[in-house]
Amino acid sequence: MEVSSWIEVSEERLAGNFRALAEAAGAETEVLAVVKANAYGHGAAVCSAALARAGARWFGVTDAVEGTRVRGALDAAGVARARILVMCGFQPEEVAGISEHRLTPVLWRTEQVEWLRGSGVGVHVEVDTGMGRQGVRPGAELDTLLGEIGEAGLKLDGVFTHFCAAEVAGSELTRTQQRRFAAAVAQVRERGLRPAWVHAGSSSSVDNPAREDNPAQGSDWLVELAKSVGARAMVRCGLALYGYCLEIEGANAGRSQISARVRAALRPVMTWKTRVMDVRELAAGETVGYNATFTVKEPMRVALLPVGYADGLRRELSSTNAKPGGWVMIRGGRAAIVGRVSMSLTVVDVSGIDGARVGDEAVLLGDGVTADDHARLAQTIPYEIVCGVRVTS
Fold this sequence. Notes:
about 400 residues; TIM Barrel; 12 helices
């Protein structure tokens, strides 16, 4: 049985994106490749192996289950020494898998220390400097946790935090988070602990040095902070690996969160395709789709695609006569979506595409129609677009 849609991943583009980010980060900063959420919808196993071939040695996953799959892919690729960070915590029943598959857990609660007691695994401690999500607070909480980690026989391999406003120009909150994180690292140093890694930031943290309008941008401050405890700096790159990045909010709005030089090197990795399953002629006056939101004004040739919002093609890409919607690419030309995107079917206008016929490939995401295009029409972010793609049979 043929699938209704499929994803093609360009290893060449993925490798090129990683190398561009690694070069921007500089020789003193490691780049952790975030492949959580199934590599943002791209396929964690496939992308991990490709990134390893490009030089990645650290990978970030959602949980131990995903980490196990990634470990299998990396072992198969002959990259046994790669490190895998379980970024979103873990449960007691996952401890055996963490040890067996050589995963590095993130922890921030004393209960998590107890779950790992006696395992001897290396751990990374997340410090909550303002995200208010997961992480231990600097001060007494962190001091207690550090003591319990040592008492339980665990190795403190890394300390990190996560910025909540890295895409906001001149964010005072980011500066506050940096100060809090520096204080936390000082606590680690005062206890005589020497983690191997100190990391913070996302794709927006790879440029060096920091820009005045976006203090989270640069990794230079992180390098110096890491050196203060004899560690290496690391940044965690996700969305940019797959060819996208957000824009800066506030001052200089409209400019990319990373430098124009790096942004120019990034290429979208995912191509999402389907095939035309029907072509028909519509006469003026006929309507298309649920609630007849689109009325044909002059004879139109349309193609039917076997995808819809159940597959991740957002309903916000629908169109009316008064409001244009999204489009797909067929034979190198734009085919506008007409009417409403429904659960499993979408109609597009192929009147201007010579020779369009049943069986033609239609590009839903890729060259000519990007996740940025979909995100703009759906009033969301490209993260949600690529993560939402679901191929079905």
